[in-house]
Amino acid sequence: MEMGWRWDFTIEILPQMAVATLNTILAAGVGYAIALIVGLFFLLGQRTPFKIVNWINREIVEFIRSTPLLIQLFFVYFVLPQFGITLSAWVCGMITIGLHFGTYLSEVYRGALEGVSKTQWEACRALNFSTIYTYRRIVLPQAFPIAIPGMGNYLVGIFKDTPLLSTIGVAELFHAATAVGGYNYRYLEPYTLVGIIFLTLSIPAAMWVRKLENDVNKAQGKIKK
Amino acid sequence: MTYFEFLNEHGVTLLLGTVTTIKVLVCSMILYVIISMIFGLMRLSKNPAIQGIATVYIEFFRGTSLLVQLFWAYYVLPFFGISLEAFTAGVVALGLNFGAYGAEIVRAGILAVPKGQWEAAHALNFTPAKRIKRIIIPQIFPIILPPAANLTVELLKATALVALVTVVDLTFEAKQINSITWLSAQCFGTALLIYYIIARFALVPFLRWLEVLAARKVGKERI
User: Fold this and answer.
1) Alpha-carbon torsion angle B88, B91, B92, B93, nearest 10
2) Interface ipTM
3) With contacts defined as CB-CB under 8 Å, which chain A residues touch B21?
4) pLDDT of res. A224
5) Cβ–Cβ < 8 Å for B87, B24
6) Yes or no, beta carbons of B188 and A160 under 8 Å apart
7) CB-based contact, B174 to chain A, within 8 Å
8) Which of A68, A127, B177, B223 is at 20 to 30 A from B195, Cα to Cα?
9) Which CATH class for the A7-224 domain?
10) Domains of chain B, each with CATH number or no CATH
């Protein structure tokens, strides 16, 4: 086996990797969209006035958050067919990522809602605003900026966890690298390329999130003054 | 096959896997704590070269996926003449990856120590090393332990990935038993439960205990 970096091989596999990168971005995007919605449901479960619902919700969230995504993927992928539900690897992956990160996002939402000062609620009550009106016009516009950094972090987080999808056979970037590497018996270039592609995508994304965070902090500082 | 029979037949294998998982967890925990401390301090250095190295390290390991790093350590490093055992590669990749996240926590913790403490230590003519060791470090623990506890639970979850580079841990065993018996619900369900029990009833209480201890050390009863 030839040692050292081979540029011709790198160029040869580049188109395949580029297509797979698109799949990775798609997976991260869809997974994130599902997680955003699932997070809302967990948030609802947390805020309903029924104690038993709160408790069940909390235990589910706790369980999902303290077990590995990898085994959750296997669980969904291998167990659902036993109950007659056969889903493609893609669908399984998206459901699992959505559920897993939905629990994290519900925490972000909760933190943001609790970040809105209680006096805002009291003022709205004093002004006789309805609950819906209070949420829509007073609370949510203030909570949303607080949630932005956390939401951005989990977008980057999901992106970096998409390689796990390769273990159940989703044809994303890492899967392509493993396939190409196995076919040619060369792992140096494919895996290094994956690393470089991840770096070039996630560092700007992380910087963008940090900038958002700064903007939010600044805006809140202005409110305080 | 009832669940009891399943446990009777495969329980020991799963437990052996659990022992390996705990070994991976403990080793990578020690490694990541050391790395976080070093790079967290380096990140705050006034020397641009030292600070630059720490920043590149942190950005690199936070910017790429853990799985990619793990496979790189196991499958690509041999190209450069460095062959690591699966267990070592797993622990090193986990330690380096989480060390990068931990370094940021340490950095934030050091910055959160009130400036007056630095000034007072300075005024009392403490050497820089003594300032860090006796005044700053004891005060950062109550600040960094809560986020570090979250990170450590993430680490426990991340240890599952070492199964993909052939470390025979709990995940590996569960996958193995699944491919023999096809009792997927029992295999992966049990594995999930074991991870949950480790996290909820061992790791988290231990970390909470550390938090209380650290808070008491600096005279705060409650955090």
Assistant:
1) 120
2) 0.90
3) none
4) 47
5) yes
6) no
7) yes
8) B223
9) mainly alpha
10) 3-217 (1.10.3720.10)
